[in-house]
Design goal:
The complex is a heterodimer of chains A (409) and B (131). By secondary structure, chain A is mainly α. Chain A has 16 helices and no strands. Classes of the chains: A mainly alpha (409), B mainly alpha (131).
């Protein structure tokens, strides 16, 4: 019974923890402009993140070490540095977007300017990382993030024409009012949002924090293979809500407050309350994960002592690195830059950095020396190779598409 | 007043078309948020924030439009029409913000905003193809 509860908790946490500001904004933008014609990208992205997250979780469970640590050891400092640079900068950008997202969500609950919430949000993130146990931190934000299920509930309450939605999703085409360039630009952005690099680094470092062993591989696989796809369903629900309410009115999403409008339309005040709590939890959880991921990647590359399972005094540089990252995020937001814009750029730059993140993971997961008989099987490798091609294409296409379309304008 | 823009493919017209799309999106957003506040299906801070964001967006459109250089008579007429609709929208959005903040009855403001939303939709319909 205890084991079943553990699996259920893991799955629920994975669903709640799947969505972050990048998923929320990108899915709503896409739904309001392209309907469900890009839903297939969510499917592709979810399969990809499942594939690589379970791979990096397995590496951590078998070796007892985080993926990044092994990448540096296995591929040498140069390859490790390339991996670190790409992942760390994207991570910092994502962290900035998440803190901005918390502030925007709190503005919805209070009417107080996000500029005043930003320092509060960053301080709260630091405090939780400093004081709260890893498992409590992860489970609470993941479970409260489940409030975002209200998007799926609102979708049913809106009473859509299901056949029309299905037609958009299963026979996708570029809407007449949009260019093919913008369509593919947002395909890359959605893919980047689903496969954000911090998720795999957090997953593998989290496995070390929670002291996973080979025995835990089964549970981690269930968490990923059930939780993430259900998180993907929520992503599609967000896009579908925007498709039903915003698209016919010609509303193009450019702020977080617009994402809430379809929920109010479908479910009223109670649903709005749930969605605000859900957005705060999702962005706060992702801010914790990205802050920790920044510390993890730096500490694992430079060989510092790291982890929340250690007292802060025993992992001082790890904690200082996270504080510096939070301050950098704060400084960026203090310039008055729109957090939604930061989010939109972060998901596209994520797509650009994907090959540098995922290729090393694949190499390490195939290394007999580290993985023994738990290394990748043929089927996993076949899927992974297909994904490497997709990742490479998305990465190469991202910047030309960004220039060509004026960042999807 | 209807501006015929057939055949306009370059110059200021694409910029005015893009401004019309953005203006319409902002006004439709504000209109929906105010309808929801009037129907009591959302919280006041949500409606206020949505309205504030819409006003900021309309301000951006105003800046874009004022910075768009026009040369031909047709372009000048198009800009004049867009500016007129924009100014109406600014005034109505400002009234809506005041009404919402004061906790006044909203039906009249909602109706006014719906009328403005119709104007911006017409503007968009004409100009979007050229953006």
């Amino acid at each position: 019974m205890k084991r079943v509860l553990g699996v259920a908790l893991g799955v629920l946490t994975a669903i709640g923890g799947f969505l972050d500001i990048g998923d929320l904004v990108t899915n709503a933008v896409v739904g309001s402009r392209f309907g469900l014609s890009l839903a297939w990208v969510v499917l592709v992205g979810v399969v990809g993140i499942c594939l690589f997250a379970q791979m990096s979780g397995r590496v951590a469970a078998v070796s007892g070490r985080a993926t990044f640590e092994i990448i540096r050891e296995r591929l040498g400092p140069k390859a490790g540095l390339a991996n670190l640079s790409a992942s760390f900068l994207i991570n910092l950008l994502t962290l900035t977007a998440e803190i901005g997202g918390i502030a925007l969500a709190l503005q919805l609950a209070s009417s107080v300017s996000p500029g005043l919430w930003i320092p509060v949000a960053a301080f709260a993130v630091w405090l939780v990382i400093w004081r709260v146990k890893f498992s409590i931190m992860e489970n609470v934000t993941g479970l409260v993030g489940l409030c975002l299920i209200v998007f799926a509930v609102a979708l049913f309450l809106l009473g859509p024409d299901w056949s029309k939605l299905a037609e958009q999703a299963f026979a996708p085409s570029v809407p007449g009012s949009e260019s093919a360039g913008a369509y593919w630009y947002y395909a890359v952005a959605l893919f980047g949002a689903a496969m954000t690099p911090y998720e795999v680094f957090f997953f593998s470092s989290g496995a070390v924090e929670e002291k996973w062993t080979k025995k835990d591989i089964g549970q981690s696989r269930i968490n990923v293979l059930v939780g993430f796809p259900l998180g993907g369903v929520l992503s599609v629900a967000i896009a579908a809500c925007a498709t039903i309410v915003l698209l016919p009115r010609g509303i193009e999403v450019s702020s977080l407050s617009q994402i809430v409008l379809p929920v109010a339309e479908g479910g009223g005040k109670l649903a709005v309350a749930f969605v605000i709590v859900g957005i705060v939890a999702a962005t706060f959880g992702a801010a914790l994960e990205t802050t920790l991921s920044s510390g993890y990647t730096l500490a694992q590359f430079f060989g510092w002592s790291w982890g929340k399972f250690r007292k802060p005094a025993e992992a001082a540089r790890f904690h200082v690195a996270m504080i510096v990252c939070l301050l950098v995020g704060l400084a960026v937001l203090a310039t008055g830059v729109d957090p939604i814009l930061v989010t939109e750029y972060s998901v596209v730059f994520s797509a650009i950095a994907l090959p540098l993140t995922y290729l090393p993971i694949l190499i390490v997961a195939n290394d007999e020396q580290y993985m023994g008989d738990a290394r990748n099987g043929r089927v996993t490798n076949a899927f992974a190779l297909v994904y490497l091609v997709i990742i490479l294409v998305a990465s190469i296409a991202a910047i030309p598409l960004m220039i060509l379309t004026g960042a999807g304008a | 007043m209807v501006v015929v823009l057939s055949g306009c493919s370059g110059g200021a017209v694409p910029a005015i078309g893009a401004a019309a799309v953005q203006l319409d999106s902002a006004v439709q957003t504000a209109s929906l948020a105010l309808q929801q506040a009037d129907a009591d299906i959302t919280f006041t801070p949500v409606a206020e924030t949505t309205l504030e964001n819409a006003i900021t967006e309309v301000d951006d459109v105003s800046t874009q439009l004022s910075e768009t250089p026009v040369q031909t008579g047709r372009e000048q007429e198009a800009k004049r029409e867009a500016t007129a609709v924009l100014q109406d929208a600014v005034a109505v959005l400002d009234d809506a913000r005041t009404a919402l903040q004061a906790g006044d009855d909203l039906p009249d403001t909602v109706e006014q905003l719906q009328q403005t939303a119709k104007q911006t939709a017409e503007l968009r319909e004409r100009w979007e193809p050229f953006s």
